[in-house]
């Protein structure tokens, strides 16, 4: 059994991680931390876990995380980087669901996240855990940076086009929409029901923290710099991301075949039939990314539709997928879940 600890188990990503790990046949949950809720039974906070998780929240100091095989950080940005070095030295493999190790350029990370990085040496060795592009590196990673939710949907959507070099890399556009749970489990006016329900808005148009992460990934796929306009939106739903992606073709190509061939055998990417329009509800509570590719009126513009559940493939599910790869377990273990409908 793989002994696993979870740091920060009280947020939406944390409880989703516990939901998935609790059904994992090769994982033993040994510690779930929360400074504010220490001593409370996890199932008292999240009744959905009654009969599945019998632990109580403990403080990080009382968790004996250094005795784990792997530790997940489902914490705000800036926490994992303070504790990762000690865990790695103890032989623990770290999976960070926040952004501490996602961006390889430290100065760029500090500009976007507004703090000094506490573990730049670990950034240099951290593996960016997008399984569809980095499986071999993930297998041996000591520190794994779990991709963000928007970056997952956008990068997977653009991946075949960028790798094949068949689009204008200087003018990519990602128009992405997220449910309110993407903002986290905290009290803020913009995410109050009366503020977010029956409304739809863009935000971060001048620059969003996920922009450098997405641009970094696309640059790696392309082998050269890319130009990206990324506009996120808040939608009045709880879960889900819908990314509508635009690029201009520079070569004539069978787009459907390109996507089907690139993602053939991928357990969690579904390339839908030509002409499809994937919906966020088709992936709800699952680790699946559904993609459809279009070429309107046969012109030179490609439109890619990419949908995920932001809390699963965009966070906790992808983290468990990475755990499976790291420990040589069948990749779909604990993740073979039929989406919830309606």
UniProtKB/TrEMBL annotation:
UniProt entry tagged with the keyword Repressor: no
EC top class, as a word: oxidoreductase
Keyword annotations from UniProtKB, A to Z: Amino-acid biosynthesis, Arginine biosynthesis, Cytoplasm, NADP, Oxidoreductase
SMART domains: Semialdhyde_dh
EC number, as in UniProt: 1.2.1.38
Reactions catalysed according to its record: N-acetyl-L-glutamate 5-semialdehyde + phosphate + NADP(+) = N-acetyl-L-glutamyl 5-phosphate + NADPH + H(+)
One Pfam family recorded for the sequence: Semialdhyde_dhC_1
Listed InterPro entries: AGPR (IPR050085), AGPR_AS (IPR023013), AGPR_dimerisation_dom (IPR058924), AGPR_type-1 (IPR000706), NAD(P)-bd_dom_sf (IPR036291), Semialdehyde_DH_NAD-bd (IPR000534)
Predominant subcellular localization, coarse grouping: cytoplasm
Pathway: Amino-acid biosynthesis; L-arginine biosynthesis; N(2)-acetyl-L-ornithine from L-glutamate: step 3/4
Subcellular location: Cytoplasm
Function: Catalyzes the NADPH-dependent reduction of N-acetyl-5-glutamyl phosphate to yield N-acetyl-L-glutamate 5-semialdehyde.
Protein name: N-acetyl-gamma-glutamyl-phosphate reductase
Species in which this protein is naturally found: Thauera sinica
